[in-house]
Amino acid sequence: MNRNWALIIMAGIIEILWALGLKYSTNIVSWAGTILLIYLSFLLLIKATKKVPVATGYAVFTGIGTAGTVIVETVFLGVPFSWGKVFFILLLLMGVLGLKLVTSESDKKEGVQQ
């Protein structure tokens, strides 16, 4: 795995944190932290998509954020477990992995200076 995909994975993990921050922030300090996490996640995503196809990178980013947020809420925050959620998370992850597998080096943006 190259550095750009690692940046997308880090951005997705940070997205989980800021998504939870949107729900659970209650004061100015927690809101400031949430805003900082939003900024950081998109900064990493933008940096990575200079070399990775935007559509695939964004799909991976949102897939990590969506699946991760549901898992964290279920495991740590007492949101009820649902087999329907598990099914759709697996479906989402299969789509993200499928996009990653069919994205080749030839899909890189043309005209971008490297």
Which key features would you list for this structure?
single chain
Characterization of the model:
The chain has four helices and no strands. It is mostly helical and 114 residues long. Helix 1 (3-24) runs antiparallel to helix 2 (28-48). The protein starts with a helix and ends in a 12-residue tail after the last helix. The model has no long low-confidence stretch (mean pLDDT 88).
Radius of gyration: 16 Å
Question: Roughly how much helix do the residues carry, as a percent range?
Answer: over 70%
| Strand and helix order | HHHH
Write down the overall mean pLDDT. Answer: 88
User: For this entry, what is the oligomeric state of its chains?
Assistant: single chain
Q: What structural class is derived from the secondary structure elements?
A: mainly alpha
Amino-to-carboxy terminus distance: 18 Å
Give the amount of beta strand, in percent. Answer: under 5%
The general outline is flat
* Low-confidence regions: none
Total number of domains: 1
Note the total helix count. Answer: 4
Total number of strands: 0
Largest sheet: none
